[in-house]
Amino acid sequence: MPWFRFTVRFVTVSLVVFGLGRILPQFALLPFSTGVLFGLAIASLALFIETFILKEEVLPFTHGLISFFLSLFGLFFLKTGYAPDISWLGMILAALIIGLVDLIIPVTLT
Hints:
This protein is mainly α. Helix content is 81%, strand content 0%. Helix 1 (2-23) runs antiparallel to helix 2, helix 2 packs across helix 3 and helix 3 (60-81) runs antiparallel to helix 4.
């Protein structure tokens, strides 16, 4: 079951990052490969945290919080290395949207 959750989280985070290119103008600069790698990184780190660090069945709210903080840190590193023109407000809004989508979608599908 964790691999199904990993796949769903990977797809949802990647689609949200691609969708943010339509909503937030700073994300329109990110190529396809960066969105896929960002989704893979967030899903992999979330799987690691949920299975090895928490070691319990986590609540749906915890899924959203983990995705929010991981995407915020991931966007921060993306800002420092690859796309320095992403604003702080854009990063927080993007992390909030990713956290909310991960709160709703993977919990209802699994």
